[in-house]
Amino acid sequence: MNREQVVTIAALATTFTVVCESCAHDDASGYGGGSYGQSFAGRLDLDLDGGVFLCRRGHTVVVERERPAAEELGSAAAA
Length: 79
Ligand SMILES: [Zn+2]
Description:
Layout: E1 5-9, E2 15-19, H1 21-28, E3 39-43, E4 50-54, E5 60-65, H2 70-78
């Protein structure tokens, strides 16, 4: 069973590299020979808040964009 993975990327990132935990787990179990990369790269345009990606082995990875901290916006005026 695939558990859904959620990773967060920086608010201003358009490309990212994340490690698939399912692959890391498989490699730790000796499944797949461990020669595959556990990480994969993707791209998320700035106007998108998130997306669903597949790693190289087809595990589902949900990527969410970090939101600029609201408190930062609020305190900018005070500071
Ligand atoms: Zn994977």
